[in-house]
Write a structure and sequence with these properties.
There is one protein chain. The protein contains four helices and five strands, in the order ααβαβαβββ. By secondary structure, the chain is an alpha+beta fold. It has a five-stranded mixed sheet with strand order 1-2-4-3-5. Strand 3 and strand 4 form a beta hairpin. It is globular.
């Protein structure tokens, strides 16, 4: 049993990054939790920059999906080699295409300013819903960007 209230960063909890509607246990191991913490470092920078430039001062970054166990990943139709399986990826909820583009731009700026690469930054869409798939690996990041419809 994991403590969903465990903080991974100032504003992110383990519960937020392991939630699932599948009803399947979704418990990361220590290495996967460390990977989630790395991603949360980026999310904290995104939150700060967003709020400094566009937000109301305390707008949260909302995660649709973070870590996925193999069973959860299969149940949601995830890719078999997904970065979600290792705790290296999150899907960030966006309110429309404009916010998705702004989030993507801010993440690219964060990467450039900090001289750190990410693995994947993909704007995704299904119907009228938009989200950013964002991944950071411990090493071997590919700085892969895309827009998927």
């Amino acid at each position: 049993m994991i403590d969903k209230k465990t903080k991974l960063s100032e504003h992110m909890t383990l519960g937020e990054l392991t939630k699932t509607k599948t009803g399947i246990d979704n418990v990361p191991n220590e290495e996967q939790v460390n990977n989630l913490k790395r991603v949360c470092g980026w999310l904290e920078k995104l939150r700060k920059r967003w709020n400094d430039l566009y937000g109301d001062g305390d707008d949260p970054i909302i995660i649709n999906s973070g870590f996925r166990s193999p069973e959860v990943n299969k149940a949601v139709g995830g890719w078999a080699q997904s970065n979600h399986l290792t705790g290296c990826a999150v899907d960030i909820r966006c309110v429309g295409i404009e916010q998705a583009i702004r989030y993507a731009t801010l993440l690219l700026d964060i990467s450039d300013l900090n001289h750190e690469d990410f693995d994947e930054l993909i704007i995704e869409r299904k119907g009228y819903s938009y989200w950013i798939h964002f991944a950071v690996r411990p090493f071997g990041n590919r700085r892969r960007t895309n827009f998927k419809r």
